[in-house]
Write a structure and sequence with these properties.
The complex is a heterodimer of chains A (174) and B (421).
Chain A: E1 3-8, H1 14-22, E2 39-45, E3 48-54, H2 66-77, E4 82-88, H3 92-104, E5 109-114, H4 116-121, E6 124-126, H5 128-135, E7 139-141, H6 150-156, H7 165-172
Parallel strand pairs in A: 1-3, 1-4, 4-5, 5-7
Antiparallel strand pairs in A: 2-3
Chain B: H1 4-18, E1 19-21, H2 28-37, H3 39-74, H4 82-88, H5 96-102, H6 116-119, H7 123-152, H8 154-167, H9 176-182, H10 186-192, H11 199-212, H12 216-225, H13 230-251, H14 271-305, H15 308-324, H16 331-336, H17 341-349, H18 355-367, H19 372-384, H20 387-419
Helix pairs in contact in B: 2-3, 3-7, 5-14, 7-12, 7-14, 9-10, 10-19, 11-13, 12-17, 17-18, 18-20, 19-20
The chains are: A alpha/beta (174), B mainly alpha (421).
C-alpha cells in the first residue's frame, strides 16, 4: 500500500495540507511547532486507499529537539513512502535544503509550494515548471487554506520520483 | 553527499534561476507586524491584549455562569432550578444514595440561605453544575480567544516579547508557547515542550507549568469562588514560576541554549478552523473531563460517608493549620485535586473559612500535585527517555513539588497577614 509523508519546515502548513487531503482534524495554528507528534489519515488516490502521515516540522534531517526526532524516526521507518515536501513559497530557499537532504537519501519526492497566494501578494513569482525541471521532481503550487492546488497535488502524487543530486548540480550550476 | 555549503550554493543558483522578487509595498499588515514585536510599542500592546483576554474570559464565562447557569441549577423565585428539583424527587433525604448523588440534606431544607449550587455537593447537583455550569462556559470563552491568538500569529510575537524576561530563568523563545498554552490545559502544554531543545529546558518547563500554571477550567471556577482575588492569585503563582525557575536553572545541570524563533506573518483566522478547534476542545471536555468531575464528586462523597475524610482531616489538621492556616476540611478538596483541580476549587468554595484561608487554599490546590491527566502526560514524556531517567525525573519532580508546596504555599499566609486580607 502506498504511503505518503508530509514533511517540511515548521509552520509551512503541513497540517492544513493534511486536513485538506484526508478530511482529518489535525490541529492547525499559526505558530511554529503546533504538531509535535505525527497524525495519520487516509485519502483515496485513483481508487486506492492511501495512508498519509502528518509529520512534525523539521529544519533538517539532523534533529535538534523531540519533535524533530519524531520526524526523523518516521522518515527512516517508512522507507517506501512518498514524501510530499511542503515548502513556504515565500521562503523556498530554506525549504529546498530539506528537499536536497531527502533527495540525497534516494526518496521519491513531490513538492507542494504552499502559501502561493501569500507569495503572490508579496510580489514573489516562482517559475515552478523550471524549478521542477531543475530538481527533476514534480512541483505543485498550492494554497492549502483555500484548497487551491490540492486536486493537482493528489493527481500528481504518482509522478513523485527520486532525483540524483549530482544531475541537479549539473543542471543548476551552469 | 553535498556538504552544507555546497547545498546552499546549489540552492542559491536554483532560486536565482526560478524566483523573481517584484516590487513590494509594505502594507498595514506589515506595519502592525512591526509594531507588535518592537518592545516600545509591543509591550503596551501585549498588556492590552492580555488584559483584553482576561476581560473577555471573565465577561463571557460570567455571562453564561452567573446570568444563566446559576439560575438554571439553583432556581429563582418563580422557577425551581435543577438542583432543588432533584431534591424534590426524593422523600428520604437521609438515604445513602441521596447523600452521594444529590448531596447534603441540610442544603435541601426550606429557607436554606447558602449557595446551593456549590454547597449541595452531590454528583448530579454540584458535580453537574461545576462541569456544565461553570467549567464549560470558561473553556468556551478561553479557547475562543486563545484560538484567535494561535491562528492570527500573535502567539509567537508574544513569545518574542516575553523572551527577555524568560532569559533570566534560562528559558528562551519557544518556552513561552507551552506556558501560554498551559493556561488552557496543562496536558497539551506538556506535549508542546517537545519543541524545546535540551532535557534541562524540558524538565524545567514541565515542572514549572504543572505546578504554577492554573488551567482554564480552574480559573473559571476561581472566578466564581474567589472573585476579586483571581488576579492576585495568578500574580502570586507567576511570581513563584519565576522564583523557582531561577532556582531550578541554577541547580539543574545542563545547558539551555539560545533558540531562535520564527515569527510567521499575520493571517486572518479562518472561521471554519476556529469552529473546528473549539469543537475539539469542547468534545474533549465532555468526553474526558466531565466523567472525571462526576467520578471525583462520587469518590469524595463515599470517603465522607465511610469516615475517611474525617480521619484524614484530623490527621493532617495540625500541619494544615499550623503551616498554612487552612482548616482540616480542606483535605477533601485536596483529594479531589488529584482528579480535577476545577472541582477541588469548587469544593473549597463550600467549606466555611475566612477570605485569607480561602485564598491560601485555592493557591494550595493550584500548587498541589498535578491533575491525573497532566500527571499521566508527564509520566509518558519522562519515560520516553528510558525507565531509569524517567524514575529520576519523577522523583526529582516530586521533591521539587514538595518543597514548592510548603515554601510558596506557607509564605502566602504571612503575605496575606501583612496585606491585611
Amino acid at each position: 500500500m502506498l504511503k505518503i509523508l508530509l514533511m517540511g519546515h515548521p509552520n509551512v502548513g503541513k497540517s492544513v495540507v493534511f486536513n485538506r487531503l484526508t478530511g482529518a482534524n489535525a490541529t492547525e495554528s499559526n505558530y511554529p511547532g503546533t504538531t509535535v507528534d505525527y497524525e495519520k489519515g487516509y485519502v483515496f488516490i485513483e481508487g486506492h486507499e492511501t495512508e498519509v502521515l502528518d509529520v512534525p516540522g523539521t529544519f533538517s534531517l539532523y534533529p535538534k529537539d523531540k519533535a524533530e526526532e519524531v520526524a526523523l524516526k518516521i522518515f527512516t521507518q517508512e522507507k517506501d513512502a512518498v514524501i510530499i515536501c511542503v515548502l513556504d513559497a515565500t521562503k523556498i530557499e530554506r525549504g529546498l535544503y530539506l528537499v536536497l537532504e531527502v533527495l540525497e537519501r534516494s526518496r521519491s519526492v513531490i513538492i507542494a509550494l504552499n502559501m502561493w497566494d501569500v507569495a503572490k501578494d508579496k510580489g514573489i513569482s516562482i517559475d515552478h515548471d523550471h524549478l521542477s525541471s531543475l530538481l527533476g521532481v514534480p512541483v505543485v503550487p498550492t494554497v492549502a487554506v483555500s484548497g487551491a492546488g490540492m486536486k493537482e497535488l493528489i493527481f500528481s502524487i504518482h509522478e513523485a520520483c527520486t532525483s540524483d543530486v549530482k544531475s541537479i548540480v549539473e543542471r543548476a550550476m551552469v | 553527499m553535498l556538504t552544507e555549503d555546497q547545498k546552499w550554493e546549489l540552492i542559491d543558483n536554483i532560486s536565482r534561476k526560478t524566483v523573481r522578487y517584484g516590487e513590494y509595498n509594505a502594507t498595514i499588515k506589515d506595519a502592525v507586524a512591526e509594531l507588535t514585536v518592537k518592545p516600545l510599542t509591543g509591550i503596551p500592546m501585549a498588556i492590552a491584549v492580555l488584559y483584553g483576554f482576561w476581560s473577555f474570559f471573565g465577561a463571557i464565562a460570567g455571562f453564561f455562569t452567573d446570568g444563566f447557569m446559576v439560575k438554571l441549577f439553583g432556581g429563582t423565585e418563580s422557577f425551581t432550578g435543577i438542583i432543588p428539583w432533584f431534591g424534590n424527587q426524593f422523600t428520604n433525604h437521609e438515604s445513602i444514595l441521596f447523600k452521594l448523588f444529590i448531596g447534603d440534606p441540610g442544603v435541601f431544607t426550606p429557607g436554606y440561605a447558602g449557595d446551593i449550587c456549590f454547597e449541595a455537593g452531590g454528583v448530579f447537583t454540584t458535580g453537574l453544575f461545576v462541569a456544565l455550569g461553570v467549567v464549560l462556559p470558561a473553556i468556551f470563552a478561553f479557547y475562543l480567544f486563545m484560538i484567535f491568538m494561535e491562528d492570527s500569529g500573535y502567539l509567537p510575537r508574544l513569545a518574542v516579547l516575553i523572551d527577555t524576561l524568560f532569559h533570566k530563568i534560562g528559558l528562551h523563545g519557544f518556552a513561552i508557547v507551552p506556558m501560554i498554552l498551559s493556561f488552557g490545559c496543562n496536558v497539551p502544554a506538556v506535549a508542546a515542550t517537545r519543541n524545546l531543545e535540551t532535557k534541562k529546558e524540558r524538565f524545567m518547563m514541565m515542572a514549572l507549568l504543572a505546578v504554577f500554571i492554573p488551567c482554564g477550567a480552574q480559573l473559571g471556577v476561581m472566578l466564581e469562588v474567589v472573585p476579586g482575588y483571581v488576579g492576585m492569585i495568578i500574580l502570586y503563582l507567576l511570581l513563584g514560576f519565576f522564583v523557582f525557575g531561577y532556582v531550578l536553572n541554577k541547580i539543574i545541570p545542563g545547558k539551555s541554549p539560545e533558540m531562535l524563533m520564527d515569527v510567521p506573518p499575520y493571517h486572518m483566522p479562518r472561521w471554519n478552523n476556529v469552529k473546528r478547534k473549539l469543537w475539539i476542545r469542547i468534545r474533549g471536555f465532555l468526553k474526558v473531563a466531565l466523567p472525571l468531575v462526576l467520578l471525583g464528586v462520587l469518590i469524595v462523597n463515599v470517603l465522607y460517608l465511610i469516615g475517611v475524610i474525617e480521619y484524614l482531616a484530623n490527621t493532617f489538621e495540625p500541619v494544615l493549620i499550623s503551616w498554612f492556616d487552612v482548616p482540616g476540611e480542606t483535605v477533601a478538596p485536596l483529594i479531589t485535586a488529584f482528579m480535577r483541580k476545577d472541582l477541588a476549587v469548587a469544593q473549597l468554595g463550600a467549606i466555611e473559612m475566612s477570605v485569607s484561608q480561602l485564598i491560601t487554599s485555592v493557591v494550595l490546590v493550584s500548587l498541589y500535585f498535578p491533575c491525573v491527566a497532566t500527571f499521566a502526560m508527564i509520566l509518558k514524556e519522562g519515560l520516553q527517555s528510558g525507565l531509569r531517567e524517567g524514575i529520576v525525573f519523577l522523583f526529582s519532580s516530586l521533591v521539587a513539588l514538595f518543597i514548592v508546596i510548603f515554601a510558596w504555599g506557607g509564605l502566602l499566609r504571612w503575605i496575606l497577614v501583612l496585606a491585611g486580607v
